[in-house]
Amino acid sequence: xxxxxxxxxxxxxxxxxxxxxxxxxxxxxxxxxxxxxxxxxxxxxxxxxxxxxxxxxxxxxxxxxxxxxxxxxxxxxxxxxxxxxxxxxxxxxxxxxxxxxxxxxxxxxxxxxxxxxxxxxxxxxxxxxxxxxxxxxxxxxxxxxxxxxxxxxxxxxxxxxxxxxxxxxxxxxxxxxxxxxxxxxxxxxxxxxxxxxxxxxxxxxxxxxxxxxxxxxxxxxxxxxxxxxxxxxxxxxxxxxxxxxxxxxxxxxxxxxxxxxxxxxxxxxxxxxxxxxxxxxxxxxxxxxxx
Amino acid sequence: xxxxxxxxxxxxxxxxxxxxxxxxxxxxxxxxxxxxxxxxxxxxxxxxxxxxxxxxxxxxxxxxxxxxxxxxxxxxxxxxxxxxxxxxxxxxxxxxxxxxxxxxxxxxxxxxxxxxxxxxxxxxxxxxxxxxxxxxxxxxxxxxxxxxxxxxxxxxxxxxxxxxxxxxxxxxxxxxxxxxxxxxxxxxxxxxxxxxxxxxxxxxxxxxxxxxxxxxxxxxxxxxxxxxxxxxxxxxxxxxxxxxxxxxxxxxxxxxxxxxxxxxxxxxxxxxxxxxxxxxxxxxxxxxxxx
Amino acid sequence: xxxxxxxxxxxxxxxxxxxxxxxxxxxxxxxxxxxxxxxxxxxxxxxxxxxxxxxxxxxxxxxxxxxxxxxxxxxxxxxxxxxxxxxxxxxxxxxxxxxxxxxxxxxxxxxxxxxxxxxxxxxxxxxxxxxxxxxxxxxxxxxxxxxxxxxxxxxxxxxxxxxxxxxxxxxxxxxxxxxxxxxxxxxxxxxxxxxxxxxxxxxxxxxxxxxxxxxxxxxxxxxxxxxxxxxxxxxxxxxxxxxxxxxxxxxxxxxxxxxxxxxxxxxxxxxxxxxxxxxxxxxxxxxxxxx
Amino acid sequence: xxxxxxxxxxxxxxxxxxxxxxxxxxxxxxxxxxxxxxxxxxxxxxxxxxxxxxxxxxxxxxxxxxxxxxxxxxxxxxxxxxxxxxxxxxxxxxxxxxxxxxxxxxxxxxxxxxxxxxxxxxxxxxxxxxxxxxxxxxxxxxxxxxxxxxxxxxxxxxxxxxxxxxxxxxxxxxxxxxxxxxxxxxxxxxxxxxxxxxxxxxxxxxxxxxxxxxxxxxxxxxxxxxxxxxxxxxxxxxxxxxxxxxxxxxxxxxxxxxxxxxxxxxxxxxxxxxxxxxxxxxxxxxxxxxx
Amino acid sequence: xxxxxxxxxxxxxxxxxxxxxxxxxxxxxxxxxxxxxxxxxxxxxxxxxxxxxxxxxxxxxxxxxxxxxxxxxxxxxxxxxxxxxxxxxxxxxxxxxxxxxxxxxxxxxxxxxxxxxxxxxxxxxxxxxxxxxxxxxxxxxxxxxxxxxxxxxxxxxxxxxxxxxxxxxxxxxxxxxxxxxxxxxxxxxxxxxxxxxxxxxxxxxxxxxxxxxxxxxxxxxxxxxxxxxxxxxxxxxxxxxxxxxxxxxxxxxxxxxxxxxxxxxxxxxxxxxxxxxxxxxxxxxxxxxxx
Amino acid sequence: xxxxxxxxxxxxxxxxxxxxxxxxxxxxxxxxxxxxxxxxxxxxxxxxxxxxxxxxxxxxxxxxxxxxxxxxxxxxxxxxxxxxxxxxxxxxxxxxxxxxxxxxxxxxxxxxxxxxxxxxxxxxxxxxxxxxxxxxxxxxxxxxxxxxxxxxxxxxxxxxxxxxxxxxxxxxxxxxxxxxxxxxxxxxxxxxxxxxxxxxxxxxxxxxxxxxxxxxxxxxxxxxxxxxxxxxxxxxxxxxxxxxxxxxxxxxxxxxxxxxxxxxxxxxxxxxxxxxxxxxxxxxxxxxxxx
Lengths: 291, 291, 291, 291, 291, 291
What we know:
Six copies of one chain form a homohexamer. Chain A is of the alpha+beta class. In chain A, 29% of the residues lie in helices and 34% in strands. Chain A is built from nine helices and 17 strands. Chain A binds chain B through residues 22-24, 39-41, 204-205, 208-209, 212, 216, 221, 242, 245-248, 255, 260, 284-291, and chain B through 220, 225, 247-251, 256, 263-264, 266-268, 270-271, 273-274, 279-285.
């Protein structure tokens, strides 16, 4: 009963993968199709459209739920409800940033140092106008269709661009003056639909599945055995994320312990567990975690 | 001690993947080799040959066990024992269908409407002759070497072809009149070898491994914790596929529950479990299930 | 605090995969970069260099820990400490062998049959000189830059080459006379660094993570349920690798058993478990095993 | 001395190929670079930017010469001089068309039949507004960021899109109502630069090279021998494109004739030449033709 | 006005390339389409079908002209007219051979040595039956669907297969006993259509274009200058393929000579020309040659 | 009768392409084969080996003729005869340079500024030793197996490396101090074989074919017509490379002129020709030029 819109383009592959991991696989006749389906009773229609246009379409009620970036929500000023941030982007779990950049040789240290009449090219003209106004700079803002960073200094004096690591801007001989926005992918909803109790419950269930898959990506299940004498020391080592599941083993004074651990802590934890008496430590992959 | 024959061609990749998943990896010097080995004491010889020829070779005792499609078993009329259907095909778990198709513009609504002398091209001449005879139509059946659907209407009046979704036939401007056969991949055996107790036991063990891998593809392991008060409500939600494994947790009035769930039900089940008091719900991938 | 050097070239991909599996992911700006990082407090610097040069650099103290082949440790005669063999190579878990090969038509049956002045081309001149000296043959050893096996008989009379299966040598018309060395990939350390207690502990922890990942590759977790009457028979079937984890199920006289099994035994074990009363047998993938 | 701007994106590959064929190879540090050079004394600077922005930059004098589509010249209304049409596009020599399309089921037969308030989505909002105004229809025009044809009927009532064959629109269930513009790629110039005699001469020379390469693509050189008696009949068969080059052969009453022929006429011409007495007919590829 | 049928499968790519080189480009909506067009007034319809079926369809008058192998013409015994051999196959200009092969260890030296009842598998059952009958051997011939050479010795005693170099048969452990047929690709015609004067003329014109392209592949145009004193010596060196075109140069006692030479002779000819006084020797590629 | 050795590795593809262009195609059973053949009566044997080893093998008389780089001839100090430089390398016609490079931050301005004991890593130890000796610097030279530029500053103080554009060294943070050698690919011969008149003649003929192909790469044939009044002006424009071929046209006072022009001059020449009265200017590709 929910109409869903997903982003075409750079976020497309990662979004479809997330929905598949969440057991909400998106089916299309071909990879270039804009119409799709999800075999789920809560979802009646799926469209794949440009992320720039998604906030407006969700605000206008053409769709109940959408996935797009915070950058486009701000740029369009669309009236939507954020259900949750989804911490993934094109290739990583990091957010993108919308920044102001100028030539490396420029004496400017922040946007406030830029002169009146500064030529700014950007794919985010609204966001840019508001930001420069806030900082009291009278900028001449032009819509850019791409290749924006290549326009400095001949065509533009400054650019407002997205960046993840800053590497592409640096390679183009630019330096970052200010960050306008840190932007994660978001799951958004139409405010009216969100006010409807039944639709809201369906939205929250879908959000539970997506969040459960995202969270599982960075975690593993650790299982271990430990005898009674060492149980407390071993449990004390485990991360506080959730309380571990402890069962008594049959036939001897020993315990099976299992818990979920962030992958980034495993390299420290496993040697420590072993040193404190844990045996038969196993690490298993997880597909989904719901607290 | 079993001699095994596997299908070359469109089923080849999927069949080798299934055997690998079943811990019966097929080794070849190169991807184009027709001779192979499986490192398993029950299997002495492996050959990879055209699926059309496999029923006859198994019936003749050249091999004890084979994998091929029901379509070729019917076409050849070979005397073989079916150990089990294996629900996979080239890319999906769906069966193929052998259908009769004619031009979309044709007035015919079923095979019985086709005129005497109708020119039918097919890769299944025997199956086709039997089907048309049964329906009382005197057809002129020609063996086709491929590109069959492209022959209507100039070269053929009707075709008998395999199809999974009907899309290719539709794209060629044809409509389906009748389905002759719904065909799954099958694990077949030579009747004499199947009558030998020791060989039969080996065949059944191999079938257990293949079926265990196929079944695991569509399922996941769900683990959750629940306190005593909610245990019965949570268990009542779980699918009846098998009874869940319940262990009492150490040190508090809570239980660890684990069960196997079909992937297609997860999107509904997990939100429901959470709403009924389950905590720390985890979903884990499974490689094999044997009941 | 450890400086680490990893091998560029044929072992590179497999080594980086192992470190990633061990939750010690190696990050580089590009696939062609020689400088890298591992986000781990025990590791301060990572370099990716030719395996031939790694033993010398570790011996000289330019790095604390390195990964290279036993062949290059022997060739260079470098003074390093072996922390452990790592049983993987370019594509498999098998070692490579350094062998002496000659024309198939040669009457020689071992190195001792080769005449004085025999022209031997090899990428391992030191190893070769030592081996021929030991066998009392006065050889004329030349450093080969590659394509070594193609030089017999016009340019060389014998070659000393690595081989995994012997297939490439056979295809070049050569036969193997003797094996000089069986060479696994090794994790090596600088002796002085290894004498430092804190560094040694860090090395051992890293070795634990690498070994845990390697071991997990060939194993799976088997879970099953069994009633009290069959418990002992089922447990008797399980491999002695480690004692199984047994928990009593809640509410009936049955037990949950889980254990780790080598993949190569699964094809025999699962049918046997089923025949002895095990039910709901599940096989799950494992990412790491630490005893 | 000319500053040149070339189109990034769908026309990029074909434009760079044309410049290379014209012996004006464009060099870049990488395929993603926006700055380039052409080793030619008439050209001082080369940039590769979005075709949408090129008309404005050329009109503003940021560049002297540019390559872009007629569609973007019209959309921007930029004041530029057209040096010549260049008959190539992404993959063929055909132009693209900018068309108005609506649902196939729509009763409208032309733009004039569309109702007031019709929602039109397009990447060409200016062109669209002017066209609808001219036809007296009060349209609500929205800028589309892509996937435009997928928006009918839910999001848009009509679209203004480019098409080459109409196939993609047809596949999306749309029909074409009107053609707003037939658009070729064009070589354009800044009016002031074009007024400068020296720059104008350089522009014309470059245009000569580009046109010479484009024309050569569809033509071949035909050489043949013919004796005096048949000379006139054979020459009469040759296309009137240019007068053939005739030389008398040494030592007998025969002539060598060569001429340029369109590839599309060769299949008819060569058999005819042979039937009229031409011998030793040769067809040779041509790289450039300048009349 | 001619209906044309071209071979799908292993000959497809090479056939379409030949038609394109002959300025008879074959257009299809997609690479998998069986219907095509050629923009030529002599050709009304093009189909791409299995080469096995083409002789029969041409004989039956479903098509006027076809391209297929001599092997299938013989196998089907179809009544068709051969317009010309076209000396190309999958990858080379060499013919294929249809041969009888047996195990290398077999004592048989020719087909006549094979025992009565010999099991022969082949994709050419008719050709095989006729050949064995002629040689007085009573064979049990089975239609093979592929992988034929892999069936010896368990499933078949002998095979009848195509081969170009014999390498695949050798690699499968087989030896060739006899060659049944040397088979080139052929341009064939329906006998009735060939009897029609107008159609015959069209067929011959198309054959001229195809043959002209094929011949040009192995040849180049050589141009050179030579002074009067050396003219005869240089001309004497030129291959007798066709008489060279000689023109007197303007303003001095020198001559321009051009002629067509086989690529395989160029490596000998050019040094010889230079040694005999030719200067400014140029080699140019040719697209088509019609004598 | 010549035995030929060609370079395996980075020069391999370009070398085989040159031999093919020269109508001396190199045939191998597979791309990884070290033994090859050329179908030419002057060449009896072809081997493809590492360029490092080729100078020594040619000097030792194992081969009569070889292709390798000047760098390896100098490094090995082998006694060979250079037949000609072949101006091609991996991807371009430019030579490589062997240079000394150090950290960009180093104060050294030339090799003479480097301190005694400087650690130099290189694939050219002999060349390096000789160069440092000549410059009076006592260096500690180590053989490097690759990744050489990555060793500065931790493992090496300076490197001696090949470079074409200097870009890779710059990217690694290094600066070039001195150029030891500018190295082209060369065609070399064994001195004894070169002293044999018949072999020498064969070598020179092969060199003629290779040089003719290389020269043709950068040139095109220009053909044009011009009337008598403009003939001298047009001829005066043509490059002096060779005198143009002029023939009088039949039937009017006009001339056909053809000449060979460097591609790099075409962009200037063609507009000039047109401005001076040339008509019907054609540019044709050339395969080989022999003066």
